[in-house]
Amino acid sequence: MNQLGGNILILILLIGCSSQVVITDPSIPDLLIEKSPYNVAIIYPENFNNFIHEEKVIGRKSWTIDFSESNKILFNKVFSSFFSTADVLLSDSEINSSNYKFIIKPNIDVIEFSVPEQSQDETFSVWIRYRIKIYDSTGTELINWPISSYGKTSTSTFADEQDLARAAVLAMRDAAALIILQMEKSKIIEKS
Amino acid sequence: MDNKLKIKSIFAKLIFLIMIFNLTACVTSRIEDNRIGLTGISDGEGVVILAKSYHLGNDTETDFIKCVSSNVSRGSSPIRVIQTIDFKNTLFPWFEPRTAPSDTNALARLLKRSQVAERISDAKIRYIIWLDGNTDSAGGGGSMSCALGPTGAGCFGFAWWQNDSKYEATVWDIKDSANEGNISAEYSGTSFLPAIVVPVPLFARTQAKACKGLSDQLKVFISG
User: DSSP readout, B55-95?
Assistant: First the structure.
């Protein structure tokens, strides 16, 4: 019985020292943009199936952001809104070069965040640097964009996990906005 | 009879506690109205209230925007307010912190996108109100200690801190992509927390008062 009590106490202490945020769907709305006439294929890296970012705040508790498949949902929404069709393929071997004008390979370079204990203000901030590589149908790299997005929320009472999740979702919405701005300006996509 | 006395005693204590927690410290205020153009709003037309971008260093609290939106849409001479998140989602991604127009020229350029102009027209949105500013707590002092023992608990000491709320609302008319003016609100006060066994908070509710003051002035400003 004493051992059980000890285990429960250790478990409570461990829970108290870490927080987990799960983002299953970033709820990205339909994008209000003119469609490009091209058909594209998207190939996601394996870690997009269950992307987890863990960080320990020095001297404080550790935080885990479980992005689950939310990055896939984000890019599916963005590219299917911008292009005529956007098919998700599992690997390069599935590409039929006559079907697609562009092959898009998104990735995550780095994720960082700050919590109020670090920033010394009442805000949660999340930075995500995505990398978007776009290839033509022969496999030649046409575009290699770093997409540095940022989301920030003010704290609310007893809701640290929700506040951090909202900051992460705002960073994802920011990424969507930045990708659209880049694609609308791109001479390569326009001229092709 | 004993029970009646007990109930009366509990009731009196409850009223005393409510009175204590409703005490507020003094707040000084200043509201300035800087009108550039003529305003007015027709039946059915509405406004949307947005925070200026945090990419520009602004950190207006989400609760403050909700408070102003709620106050403008209620009370005397209410104005229809479109929910911020609904507006942003309907026009995604053109009113995100990175893409939102930073001046009226940028708004005019954005409205050249037919889909954007159509959605705004369908929702009958006449004005965009941009909120800027925040509430800071600073310059505190004093000390307080609390103790808990087998016979009870209590606190002793005195603490205070300064609350400053500074906000500015800028009104854009979508009809002609013009800046119609702005309203600035500054509220400041000192909060006190004296404690002899029981702490008695005397908060300077500057943010709540700034919300009320700014909302009332916005209604007058928009009505013309």
Answer: GGT----HHHHHHHHHHHTSSSS--EEE-HHHHHHHTTTTT
pLDDT in tens, B133-179: 999 887 788 988 999 888 888 999 999 999 999 999 999 999 999 99
DSSP E strands in chain B: the ranges are 27-35, 46-51, 80-82, 125-149, 152-173, 178-199
pLDDT in tens, A97-156: 778 999 999 999 999 998 888 877 888 999 999 999 999 988 899 999 999 999 999 887
Contacts of A153 in chain B (CB under 8 A): 62
Chain B residues with CB under 8 Å of A177 CB are 93, 96, 98-99
The model's pTM: 0.84
Q: Inspect the interface and report whether the beta carbons of A152 and B94 lie closer than 8 Å.
A: no
Strands laid side by side in the A51-56 sheet:
A18-22, A62-68, A51-56
Q: Which of A104, A117, A108 has its CA nearest to residue A149? A: A108
Residues of A in contact with B92 (CB under 8 A): 28-32, 173, 176
Chain B CB within 8 Å of residue A152 CB: yes
- B214 contacts: CB under 8 Å, gap ≥ 6: B31, B68, B167, B169, B183, B185
pLDDT of residue A178: 96
The span from the CA of B102 to the CA of B90, in Å, is 19
Of the partner residues A121, A154, A180, the one whose CB lies closest to the CB of residue B93:
A180
The nearest alpha carbon in chain A to B62 belongs to A154
Q: What's phi and psi for A46, nearest 5 deg?
A: -60, -35
State the smallest CA–CA distance between residue A96 and chain B in angstroms: 32
Please give the ipTM for the structure prediction. 0.84
Cα separation, A156 vs A137, in Å, equals 48
- A176: which chain B residues are within 8 Å (Cβ-Cβ)? 92-93, 96
> Is A177 or A3 the better-scoring residue by pLDDT?
A177
Q: Note whether A174 contacts B94, CB cutoff 8 Å.
A: no
